Amino acid sequence: MRSESFGTLLKRLCIVIVFSIAFGYVEATVVVYLREIFHPTGFTFPLTNLPGNALWKRLILTETGREAATLVIILTGSWLFGRSRQQRFAFFLAIFAVWDIFYYVWLKLLLNWPASLMDWDILFLMPTTWAGPVVAPVLVSLTLLVFSVVILYRCARGAPMKPTRMEWLGLIGAAIVVIVAFCIAGQHIAEHNFRSYFSWPLFAVGCIAAVVLFTRRLLKST
Question: What are the φ/ψ torsions at residue 132 (nearest 5 degrees)?
Answer without folding.
Answer: 165, 175
